[in-house]
């Protein structure tokens, strides 16, 4: 009895997100009731196939009913540290599981001793499980202590960023900003931050919006900023930000691209100064002077169409800030992100902005993006939404996704409630890769 019960508990706890330690007593009580109802000739292992005990339903219950239509993992699951199957501890546990006679095919006979001793066996197994849970709790406390150290936490996320850089380009979401509409960053955009790559507008927008969130600086996305700086009135008329009240902000920041080169725009309403910063340091006074007219036109157009009268009466004055000049041909995006971050975090407009080594800044900014991201298990890996619906968990990477987002039918969704399932990304990694042909 105790031998089989111990093997059963190990099976339930060996896989990530399968069961929480708090649910084990409830599981054992239910399991005990089923054993008492079995006839003497019925081996305990037949519980897997017995109609009175549905393993799939049991998994659903122990997973917090998250595979039956509710949203994401429970907070209780996120607090439990369970080893991944491919980790050293996970492999060790699988070896223990393989040695268990209850799992490897040997069917033990029904317990012949008096059933009154069953409670003692169960208590012994729960005592061992409790000791294991205490070890898991100690490991979790050590992890929390490590994350409380800023330098250690910073290094952790930087290492995670380097690992993502080493992966193949995909459409997976790697970071989410918990704002209205949930701003997301996908891996293909995140890879542009690798050394020597040209950055795209999405990762610059995500970085600037990340630091502007919760401040009195409004972030203008790179598309609208480009449309204003190019005088695209047809685009501007569709991007009037009617729900935004600029009087609630002291400044606005945005970036725009001119022929594969990024520049930064910063508007400071109290001083009525407008800055255009070019990482290469070219024609900043001219660009700032031209930008004052273009942004004045935009805010007047906004007033005429939406009756939003904030900032439409400001007569902007051009200004520049002395800053470090870009020396290579691929760091304009890095300089734009750093200059924007400095201006957002400064209580007063700085007279100079110093930019460090672009290679080091790329790693640092990648780590900051991952560190400031919302908890990914709460969001769909494909759409970045936390909306309710049918959720499925990948048993390989432990990521959650909507069944609709992965094109899963209702029949397949009901099936994966009871069997392991891997997402398309994890399955594609297992496929053999074509060998590169050697040059002649």
Automatic annotation (TrEMBL):
<dbReference type="GO" id="GO:0008270">
    <property type="term" value="F:zinc ion binding"/>
</dbReference>
<comment type="similarity">
    <text>Belongs to the peptidase C48 family.</text>
</comment>
<dbReference type="InterPro" id="IPR011011">
    <property type="entry name" value="Znf_FYVE_PHD"/>
</dbReference>
<dbReference type="GO" id="GO:0008234">
    <property type="term" value="F:cysteine-type peptidase activity"/>
</dbReference>
<keyword id="KW-0645">Protease</keyword>
<feature type="region of interest" description="Disordered">
    <location>
        <begin position="128"/>
        <end position="153"/>
    </location>
</feature>
<dbReference type="InterPro" id="IPR013083">
    <property type="entry name" value="Znf_RING/FYVE/PHD"/>
</dbReference>
<dbReference type="GO" id="GO:0006508">
    <property type="term" value="P:proteolysis"/>
</dbReference>
<feature type="domain" description="Ubiquitin-like protease family profile">
    <location>
        <begin position="183"/>
        <end position="343"/>
    </location>
</feature>
<protein>
    <submittedName>
        <fullName>Uncharacterized protein</fullName>
    </submittedName>
</protein>
<dbReference type="Pfam" id="PF00628">
    <property type="entry name" value="PHD"/>
</dbReference>
<keyword id="KW-0862">Zinc</keyword>
<dbReference type="Pfam" id="PF02902">
    <property type="entry name" value="Peptidase_C48"/>
</dbReference>
<feature type="compositionally biased region" description="Low complexity">
    <location>
        <begin position="128"/>
        <end position="138"/>
    </location>
</feature>
<feature type="domain" description="PHD-type">
    <location>
        <begin position="377"/>
        <end position="429"/>
    </location>
</feature>
<keyword id="KW-0378">Hydrolase</keyword>
<keyword id="KW-0863">Zinc-finger</keyword>
<dbReference type="InterPro" id="IPR003653">
    <property type="entry name" value="Peptidase_C48_C"/>
</dbReference>
<dbReference type="InterPro" id="IPR019786">
    <property type="entry name" value="Zinc_finger_PHD-type_CS"/>
</dbReference>
<keyword id="KW-0479">Metal-binding</keyword>
<dbReference type="InterPro" id="IPR019787">
    <property type="entry name" value="Znf_PHD-finger"/>
</dbReference>
<dbReference type="InterPro" id="IPR038765">
    <property type="entry name" value="Papain-like_cys_pep_sf"/>
</dbReference>
<dbReference type="InterPro" id="IPR001965">
    <property type="entry name" value="Znf_PHD"/>
</dbReference>
């Amino acid at each position: 009895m105790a031998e089989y019960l111990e093997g059963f508990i190990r099976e339930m706890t060996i896989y990530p997100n399968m069961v929480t330690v708090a649910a084990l007593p409830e599981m054992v009580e239910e399991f005990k009731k089923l054993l008492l109802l079995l006839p003497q000739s019925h081996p305990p292992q037949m519980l897997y196939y017995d109609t009175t005990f549905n393993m799939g339903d049991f998994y659903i219950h122990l997973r917090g009913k998250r595979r039956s239509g509710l949203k994401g993992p429970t907070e209780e699951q996120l607090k439990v540290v369970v080893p991944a199957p491919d980790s050293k501890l996970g492999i060790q546990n699988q070896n223990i599981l393989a040695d268990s006679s209850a799992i490897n095919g040997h069917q033990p006979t029904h317990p012949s001793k008096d059933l009154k001793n069953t409670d003692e066996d169960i208590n012994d197994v729960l005592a061992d499980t409790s000791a294991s849970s205490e070890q898991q709790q100690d490991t979790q406390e050590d992890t929390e202590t490590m994350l409380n150290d800023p330098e250690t936490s910073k290094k952790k996320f930087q290492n995670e960023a380097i690992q993502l850089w080493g992966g193949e380009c995909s459409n997976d979401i790697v970071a989410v900003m918990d704002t209205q509409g949930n701003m997301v960053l996908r891996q293909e955009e995140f890879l542009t931050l690798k050394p020597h790559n040209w950055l795209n507008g999405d990762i610059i927008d995500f970085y600037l919006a990340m630091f502007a969130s919760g401040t009195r600086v409004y972030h203008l996305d790179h598309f609208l900023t480009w449309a204003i700086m190019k005088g695209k009135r047809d685009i501007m008329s569709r991007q009037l930000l009617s729900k935004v009240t600029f009087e609630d902000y002291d400044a606005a920041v945005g970036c725009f691209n001119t022929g594969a080169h990024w520049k930064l725009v910063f508007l400071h309403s109290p001083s009525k100064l407008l800055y255009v910063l070019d990482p290469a340091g070219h024609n900043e006074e001219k660009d700032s002077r031209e930008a004052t007219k273009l942004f004045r036109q935009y805010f007047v157009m906004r007033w005429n169409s939406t009756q939003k009268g904030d900032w439409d009466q400001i007569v902007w004055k051009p200004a520049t800030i002395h800053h470090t000049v870009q020396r290579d041909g691929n760091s304009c995006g890095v300089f734009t992100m750093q200059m924007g971050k400095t201006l957002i975090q400064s209580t007063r407009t700085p007279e100079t902005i110093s930019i460090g080594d672009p290679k080091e800044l790329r790693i640092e900014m990648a780590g900051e993006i991952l560190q400031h991201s919302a908890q990914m298990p709460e969001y769909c890996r494909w759409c970045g939404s936390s909306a309710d619906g049918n959720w499925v968990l990948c048993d390989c990477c432990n990521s959650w996704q909507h069944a609709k987002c992965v094109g899963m039918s209702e029949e397949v969704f009901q099936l994966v409630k009871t069997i392991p399932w891997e997402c398309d990304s994890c399955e594609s990694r297992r496929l053999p890769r074509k060998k590169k042909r050697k040059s002649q």
